[in-house]
Amino acid sequence: MLKNHRNAIVAPLVGILLCFKNKDIRRLALWPWFVGTLSYITTVTTAYYSFPIIYEYFDIDRSGHFISLANWGIWALTAFSLLLTTLVVSLVLVLVLSGFFQTSIAIKVLELNGVEVPPESGLASEATRTVFNELLKLLWILPLGLLIFIFGLIPILTPVALTLGAWILSYQFVDIVLDSLKISARKRLSFSIKHFLKLTIFGFILAICWAIPFLGVILMPCATAAAAWLLTKNDLLKDLTGV
């Protein structure tokens, strides 16, 4: 099964290479990198100081020479939930504050892979539309993100939280690419559900990359480039665009 989804596994690496090796994409990535750096430092610092507060909230008997399995479990779940939260918050900040550049990166990668992109309606119009779309998505992304955070604190629901979190993460970047092709919101969501497993694998790899110290600083535009590259492979766009 992994062989059939290997593009989803290697896509983040391809996205990083595209952002650093292609001068046009690298130039577009500068502002998202700047916003990403500020959001990464802010969210990770907040999570670092919040961790002991949340961890101590669970009244666990930590006496004795050995830490109980439950203690380790709460530690891991707390760390995972905070990691996911920092990622979501940073993602929202970058997409809202640099959405136009993210869309431009997606378009550039699509064009490099031979995909014809509909003409833009103007810089101001496209920038406004991009910000509006990202803010609109927050209406359901944030409540769902909160639900995932709660699930992550419940051991039996942790696999559900991991899976949904990975899918939502990848959906954000895939949605940027599909939106640049002027595909309707309903079709974008339907497409992402149809390719749930591929997107979830892609999201897991992105989450692992985010957990690597300081790699999260450059991840956002690279993830957009990765999503655009991924969608050009294995005829994923054929059902939507006919390319």
Taking Cα atoms only, what radius of gyration do you get, to the nearest Å? Answer: 19 Å
In DSSP terms, counting alpha (H) and pi (I) runs of 4 or more, how many helices? 10
Share of residues in strands: under 5%
How many β-strand runs? 0
Residue windows where pLDDT falls under 50 for at least 5 positions: none
Q: Shape from CA axes?
A: globular
Q: Can you give the mean pLDDT?
A: 78
From the N-terminal CA to the C-terminal CA, the straight-line distance is 25 Å
Compressed to H and E, one letter per element, the order equals HHHHHHHHHH
Main sheet properties: none
Structural class: mainly alpha
Oligomer classification? single chain
What level of helicity do the residues show?
over 70%
Key traits:
mainly alpha, 10 helices, 243 residues, 0% strand, globular
Notes on the structure:
- 79% of the residues lie in helices and 0% in strands.
- By secondary structure, the chain is an all-alpha fold.
- The relative contact order is 0.18.
